[in-house]
Each structure stands twice: as structure tokens, then as C-alpha cells.
Amino acid sequence: MEVKDFEYSLPNELIAQEPLKRRDSSRLMVIDRSKNTVQHGIFTDLPDYLNPGDCLICNNARVIPARIRGKKAKTGGNVEFLLLSEVAPGKWETLVKPGRRLPEGTSVEFGDGRLTAKIEERLPEGKRLVSFEHEGSFQDILEMVGEVPLPSYIHKNISNPGCYQTVYASNKGAVAAPTAGLHFTEELLGTIRKKGIHTASITLDVGLDSFRPVKAQKVKEHKMHSEKFFISKKDADVINNAIDGGNKIIAVGTTSARALETVAFVNGQGKRRVGEFRGSTNLFIYPPYDFKIVDSLVTNFHLPKSTLLMLVSAFASRELIMKGYKIAIKERYRFFSFGDAMLIV
Q: Helical H runs in 128-207?
């Protein structure tokens, strides 16, 4: 299968530049895999497609203020870092600007010296390995000197950075939001729970590479970057109990789906299971793929040729997903992080 099979043309005006005033008022496209149908609604209709005993799995990762702006220690030249992942205590894989003016050994200061950094090594794809020095908590300093990074296709300044966090975001570490969860409100979650639908959490620290278009020509040639994630025994038990009851597992977002499929196994009795886990995953899901845990998927509309589009195409089919996207463009749905939602059942 070739990457070009996941290309589509999107008018720029359909890329949502800001969230709606009320998160759960977004549109909801419902794709039924068994009936091969596409329906339209709003996100508050979601509970109508869930049954008592079902289990909704949310990624509670919280986006850190990963974009920091500083100055070169020697010249005072302006510098911008985008933190990608912590590879060792005090050392981060980072994107830097301007890259050509930041060779190995360069020192940079942030927040009037509250945080200093040194370029340790050039990495592939324009990245740098950077070591940081500071007094006190690194996360506290980031809160003071950093800002939450928005995707590059959002050009409008957002006055409230909290709109790029889910209402249940709690575990800091992601550099991009698990955007399918942005549609939920506390009220809607309350409605879901009152209906007898269970909820469970995973934490997957979303990285920027998940959102980037795949550069390889053949899908199988793409190398998926690792992302850290965690699922507790308590949450794994909630999911397994739902499976034992014959109920559906609904993943909120591709990140939740990847995490669940990473920890999926079949026990000695032939039952589907998920296990407690702390580590990372580089699982790349693309057609054909046999999902072991996920029964339904809440997701957004994804960039062309992205691994996210490939995952949802594996969950439904490429033909059905591309049919849905064609309809979404015709019906003027809003796309990407602040856009509308899709439910695949």
C-alpha cells in the first residue's frame, strides 16, 4: 500500500483556526462499518450510540508549555526551542530555530537565566539533543517561561491556551493534545456516566511526529516514533470487566487506540485482555490490521498522508473513510485539532 493512497485535497478555509465556544457543540459524523453508512449529528449525540456497561477510554495526557523562547548566551540572538521528548534526566530531543546558527556547544538562556541550555548533539531530521540546567522543578520553570505549542496549521493567536487541553487532562508530558478528547465537557461526561457507561484512562504523551505527513512512498517503510504511555491495573481491570460483560470498548482518539492495542493479549481462556503497563509504544497501525480490543473509535478529521488517517482507515476501511472525508468536505465540516468529530462504530 502506498502513502499516496491516503492523500486528499482540503480547502484551507476548512482548517479550524479556533475552537467553538462550547466544546461539545461540534458536529459529529457517524460512520457505521457494518452498514457502510454515514450519518450526521452533533457531539452531544454521542451517548445515544453508547450502551450501559460500555467503557470509554480517554487519554488524560496534559500538554506541557513545550515552546520556549530565549537568547544565545554570547550574542543575545533570539532562539526558539520546541521540546519533543525527554530522553534522559535533564536531556531533551528538541527542534530549534534558527538551526543553522545553533551548532553543538552553543549555550542558550531562557527566562532571564532561570533556565540554561547547551546544544549537545545534532540529530536526524533537524533535531538537537539539548541538556538543561536549572534550580528547582523543571516543570515549574516551564510553566513560567514556556507556552503551549499549537499545531503549525493554526495561524490564529489563541487567548486561552486551556482550550488546547482536554477537560480531564491531568498527567503532564505531552507536546501535542490528544485532540479527539477536546470535544468533551464535564456535563457530557456526567451524562455518559449517569447512563451507566464506564470510563477509564490511559496516559500517552503525544508527540509531534504523530501528526506529520509520512514521507516514505510505501506505508510499510515508515518508521513510527516511540511515545511513552501508562495504564494502571485499576483502569485495565475496568476495561477487562467491560469486555467480560460483553460490552463495547470505545477509544477516544487514535492515541488511546494505539495504547490499548499495544497492551492487548488473549489469556488462557481465549478472552481479550489488556494489561497494566508503563513504557513506550511505536506500534504503527495501518491497513490491514486486526483490532483486538477497540470496538468503536471517537476521532477527529486528520491530515492527508498522516499515520492517524492510516489508523482510522485500518479501523474502518480506506474506502469508507475516504468516502466520509469527501462528504465532510462537501458538507463543510471543520478539520483537524479544533475541528469536528467522527464516531466509527
A: 138-145, 186-194
Domain boundary among 147, 180, 198: 147
Q: Whole-prediction pTM value?
A: 0.93
Query: In DSSP terms, which residues pair with 115 in a beta bridge?
Result: 110, 134
**Are 224 and 167 spatial neighbours (Cβ–Cβ below 8 Å)?**
no
How many domains does the chain fold into? 2
Say whether pLDDT at 212 is over 80.
Answer: no
**pLDDT at 336 > cutoff 90:** yes
The residues, ordered by sequence, that sit 6+ positions from 94 with a Cβ below 8 Å of its Cβ are 81, 82, 83, 84, 127, 128, 129, 130
Q: Which domain holds residue 19?
A: 3-63+160-344
In a shared domain, residues 98 and 242: no
Q: What is the CATH number of the domain that holds 71?
A: 2.40.10.240
Name the grid cell of 78.
533570539
- Kindly state the cell numbers that stand for 121: 548533539
Nearest to 66 by CA among 176, 230, 166: 176
R_g (Cα) of the chain, nearest Å: 21
Helices (H) and strands (E) in the chain, counts: 6, 20
